[in-house]
Each structure stands twice: as C-alpha cells, then as structure tokens.
From TrEMBL:
Location(s), subcellular: Cell envelope
Coiled coil stretches, renumbered: 242-269
Protein name: Iron uptake system protein EfeO
Domain Imelysin-like: start-end pairs: 153-379
UniProt-annotated stretches for the region Disordered: 28-55
Keyword annotations from UniProtKB, A to Z: Coiled coil, Signal
Highest rank taxon of the organism: Bacteria
Amino acid sequence: MKLSKSIIHTALTLSLITVPVISGCSNEAASSGEHKKASSSKKNELKSQVKEMQGSLHQLQDSLQEKNEEQVKEYGKRLNKQWLSYENNIREKYPLLYTDTEKYLLPLYAEVTKDNYNSSKVQQLSVDLDRSLTNLEKAKETTQKTTEVLDTAVKKYKTYVDEQTEALVKSTKTFNDAVRANDTQKAKEAYAEARVYYERIEPIAESFGDLDPKIDARENDVEGEWTGFHRIEKALWKDGSLKDMKKYADQLDQDVAELQKKVQGVKLNPTQIVAGSMELLNEAAISKVTGEEERYSHIDLVDLASNVEGSQAVYHAVLPVLNEKNKDLAQDLDTEFNKITALLEEHKKSGAYLDYKKLTKPQVRELSQQLNTLSESMAQTAEIFQ
C-alpha cells in the first residue's frame, strides 16, 4: 500500500482510498496476528522440547541414585539424541543459553558413555545441566547491537580463560606435589589433567613473553636451563626417575601462578580471541599432530582435544554475532566441531585417549585434514569484524 500516490489524487478518489486503507490495515493486523501465533507456537514447541529433555535428565538422576548403570547410560544417550534434534533452532534464537547447555551436556554424555563413569561427576554435571535447561525453558529472545554482543563475547571468553587458568594452577600443584613426593604413578596421572587446562588457553599464555617457554618448552627449544612440564615429563617417562625434579616442580608452580596473575589483568578484544582460536587449530594441525609435543608420554591426543576445546570456547563466545552476520558459517562451524570431536572420540578406550604411537599414519592424516578444515572455517569469522 502506497499512500504517497493516493494523496496526490483528487477528493473524488480520496473516498476510494478508504477501502484499501482499511483492507491494508486489516491485512497488516492479520499478518501481525499470524506472526504472534507463529512466535507463540515456536515458544511452546521449545518449552515442550526442553521439558522432554528435563524428563530424560530426571530419569537419569533417579537411575544414578538407584545405581542402575545400564539405565544411566541409556538415559544419557537419549538426552544427547534429543539435544541433537533440537539444538539448531536453539543455537539461532538463544546462542548464549545454547552454549551454557552444551557446557554441561557434552561432558555429561562423554562421562556416562565410559565403561566406568564417575558417579559424583555425573551427579554434579546433571545438576548444572538441570539449571541450564530451566533457564532455557524461561528464555526470551533479545536483540542487541553487534558491538554490545561482541563486548559480551569478549567477557564470556575472558571468564572462560580465568576459569581454565584457575584450574591449571590447582591441577599443576597436584601434579607437582606428586613429583615432590616422588610418587611416579600419581604424577603421571596428574600430568595429563594439568596439560588439558594449559592447552586450552595456550595462545593467551604465549602472549606473556618468556612465560610460555618456561612452562611449556620442549627439549632444545630454549637456550639455557630447560624447565616446565616437558622437563618433568622426560624424567617420568624416559628417565624413569624423579630425582632432582623438586626444583623444577617448585619453579613450575611459581610460573603458573605468575601466568594466572597476568591473565587476570589482560585486556582482550574480539580479533585477538578469534586469532587465538585459529592459532590453536593451526598449531594442532601442523605441529602437534606429528606427535612432537608429548614425545615421552605420548598423550598428544589429550593436547589436540584440548586445543579443539579451547577453540570451541571462542566459537561459542562469538556465536551470537555469527547468528546475526552469517548463520551458514555458524552451522558449518558447529558441524566441523562435531566432526573433529567425534573423530577424537574414536581414539579413546575405556574413556581415555590412546597412546599417540598407536595411531596409524592414515589416522593421523585424517586428524590433520579435519583440523585444517575446521581452521579454514574458523578463519572466516574474521568477516564479523568488518
């Protein structure tokens, strides 16, 4: 309806405008009503989907209390299947709640599918997931300016980095306490966990001058005295002795504590966090996939998975902007992250990653190719800042 043309007509034709105006308004009202109905229908559909997931989760919790492992696994699989059916719509409309739900659902599913899952861990994750689903059920669509969403993305990622660094400090101390106690077996077990937290935030750690080499350098990578994780790794897996390792354990605790202090004061921007995500994937695809990173312990799959998780944290942080700017890219990234995660899961046995030496050349090549594909997709997120 174009009133501007009608206005230039004579008074004779003015009377004729009445009908189309009323008709037009009626059509607009009808259209608005249909839109509201559609919106309400989708909202009700979301609530129904969330309630269905909550039902499966509560059944899982009941089975957990009854110590029925078979049912816990069954409900865990059902919960994951339901989420995969609903997640695309949720990702688009409620990206922040989507990432919060995945934060607990994915590790819950990974845990219950292990041969021997940790009941306490499953219980805590189920409680956190229940809270996330409740928030999702009450969700309201909101609109923000791109700059505001980017600011939120940076804050979200900064929170993630702070959490990972805090966990790094604690897990490194557990590792070093075992080293100082000359407990080789406990030190080996604690080593992998500490590496997870470092590898997730490696690009941030590398930005602080010589801290990264002190913490993470491999043999022959630095001039002067060699310190850090890999120095003790060699003592554990190659030398078979923790003799004289106390000073390296003490130094590693100090360096990780210094890293946490610097991280707390760091200022990040969207370009930095996306660049860091790409850096994680590129390094994983080019150098870490060769098995050089963990040359004595051969837990390279732990490092690769952690790099992917760190990069995925960036993807989750910028997802609201991707949904606004490039929904197809958001979908592609979700698909690629799922592919590499599934591929890594294939190299697990009894819930633990295999010794990297046991992978065949075609398997290593497949990992490298998928990491490269994911890195290329992640690189396209640069367009959201243009």
